[in-house]
Write a structure and sequence with these properties.
- The chain has 220 residues and is an alpha/beta fold.
- It has two domains: 176 residues, Rossmann fold, CATH 3.40.50.300; 38 residues.
- It contains six helices and six strands, in the order αβαβββαβαβαα.
- A six-stranded mixed sheet has the order 2-3-1-4-5-6, with helices on both faces.
- Helix 5 packs across helix 6.
- The chain is globular, with a radius of gyration of 24 Å.
- The termini are far apart.
Length: 220
């Protein structure tokens, strides 16, 4: 399927924003996907950006934006031209689940992100006491989110759930690109036909105003 898609449409390029509160595991997720291994991380002050090629189908340019309090107001500066959001949640951090919900709600209501898709990583599932993905979804009130979304049980340190997330994102973005590729020519054709009809009517009127007006009155 991957080779067929690439032959038909080429490799999809996608811009992904990775958000979440500080210490949710965003940077660990990013470099696990990029390098296939766990790396030692420090709190992200600005952002990390990496390109991840997946199954020869899609290139994700992932922006891992710092999640500390003072940095969050700057998140909106990264929203333009975003195709997908990945919101990483520390499933063990029950005390800040409400805060994560509020931040996510603010993000998905941004006008610049209305055409994006959202993947939520219920991260750190390997730790004792972590909330299940279903419980994280309930506490984040995902049922009220208006853009397409899905939630995944993940562990960045063990690598579980990460590629399932990429599979879903790939499918969503490929389907959107295919739909756009099919709809755009149809829209242009309709536009061209409409323009031709208007020109034809104008030409008829200029060549024979009386006959044209008479025909319109009869058919109208």
């Amino acid at each position: 399927m991957g080779n067929t898609w690439t032959r038909l449409f080429g490799k999809t390029e996608a811009r992904i924003l990775m958000h979440g509160l500080d210490a949710a595991g965003k940077t660990t997720v990013l470099y696990r996907l990029k390098l296939g291994e766990v790396v030692t991380t420090i709190p992200t002050i600005g952002f990390n950006v990496e390109t991840v090629s997946y199954k020869n189908i899609i290139n994700f340019t992932a922006w891992d934006v710092g999640g500390r309090d003072k940095i969050r107001p700057l998140w909106r500066h990264y929203y333009q031209n975003t195709d997908a959001l990945v919101f990483v949640v520390d499933s063990k951090d029950k005390e800040r689940m409400e805060q994560a919900r509020d931040e996510l709600r603010q993000i998905v209501n941004e006008d610049e992100l209305r055409d994006s898709v959202l993947a939520i990583m219920a991260n750190k599932q390997d730790l004792p006491g972590a909330l299940s993905a279903d419980e994280v979804a309930r506490q984040l009130e995902l049922s009220s989110v208006r853009i397409p979304w899905a939630i995944f049980s993940t562990s960045a340190t063990e690598g579980t759930g990460l590629y399932e997330t990429l599979d879903w994102l790939s499918e969503q973005l490929r389907n959107r690109r295919a739909k756009k590729a099919l709809v755009s020519p149809v829209a242009e054709t309709i536009k061209d036909v409409g323009s031709s009809v208007q020109k034809l009517k104008l030409t008829d009127y200029l060549s024979s105003p009386y006959k044209t007006l008479k025909k319109w009155l009869i058919t109208g």
